[in-house]
Backbone:
């Protein structure tokens, strides 16, 4: 069985298992107690280096404390390899310093069973990509035994996202499955511009307005192009897919659990920042 070994351990997060677990526990302690009372269906969490975004990610993952899931579907953007549609890791393991996590092959194959096929099954896309990997240590600390379905999404349109959401719904319906959309928010504007644009994006997400996200992002990037705004949501397709899938699975509430940007970190620079949001979708 193939094992996808860590690509960013020691850079995005500590490579030592004890240091890694202690860092995550510290983030979770600072985030406080869970606040979502209903059936938790999906989360959005950032995927930057933990020194920048780990504190925000903890606000999503604290909601898993005391909950039980058999499978976690993780939707991340592909930063390095061009993908036509999406790619799914259908069998094997993902490894972190905290251990190996098996892939739910049955569910992965169900998601791939659309007609016509919507997914590219090539595994090489996953070898360097960090967007899925950085979510895993948080899951390993907050959940007990679980499987994963890693999915990378390329630059595609809303119709593809709807189709993928439909396949996720069919595969996950009636099971104890959580969806995680891995995404950072605004990239490289000054601190105040990031706060403004990310507030607008989070409002659309909270209103389940997946249809408006892409157009709104394009408008904001045009408006603030001179301010170095390069993207509003780097995992846009995964977030759109998650909104559609979560809604089909019964989610009717979305809470913004936390927002910050890299300028809020002691390691950050307010002149050019990346935004991070934590969101929970629940019934």
Residues:
């Amino acid at each position: 069985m193939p094992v996808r070994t860590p690509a960013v351990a020691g850079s995005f997060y500590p490579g030592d298992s004890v240091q890694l677990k202690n860092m995550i526990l510290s983030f979770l302690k600072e985030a406080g107690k869970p606040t979502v009372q209903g059936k938790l269906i999906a989360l959005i969490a950032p995927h930057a280096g933990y020194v920048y975004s780990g504190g925000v990610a903890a606000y999503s993952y604290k909601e898993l404390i005391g909950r039980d899931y058999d499978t976690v579907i993780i939707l991340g953007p592909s930063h390095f390899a061009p993908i036509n549609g999406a790619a799914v890791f259908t069998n094997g393991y993902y490894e972190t310093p905290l251990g190996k996590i098996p892939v739910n092959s049955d569910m992965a194959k169900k998601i791939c069973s659309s007609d016509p096929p919507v997914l590219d099954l090539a595994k090489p896309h996953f070898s360097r990509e960090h967007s899925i990997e950085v979510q895993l240590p948080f899951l390993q600390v907050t959940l007990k035994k679980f499987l994963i379905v890693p999915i990378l999404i390329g630059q595609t349109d809303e119709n593809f996202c709807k189709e993928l959401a439909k396949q996720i719904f069919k595969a996950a319906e009636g099971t104890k499955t959580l969806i995680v959309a891995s995404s950072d928010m605004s990239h490289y504007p000054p601190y105040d511009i990031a706060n403004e644009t990310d507030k607008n994006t989070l409002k659309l997400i909270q209103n389940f307005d997946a249809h408006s996200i892409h157009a709104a992002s394009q408008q904001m990037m045009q408006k603030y192009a001179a301010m170095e705004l390069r993207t509003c949501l780097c995992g846009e397709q995964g977030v759109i897919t998650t909104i559609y899938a979560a809604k089909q699975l019964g989610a009717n509430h979305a809470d913004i659990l936390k927002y910050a940007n890299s300028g809020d970190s002691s390691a950050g620079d307010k002149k050019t920042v990346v935004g991070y949001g934590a969101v929970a979708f629940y019934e």
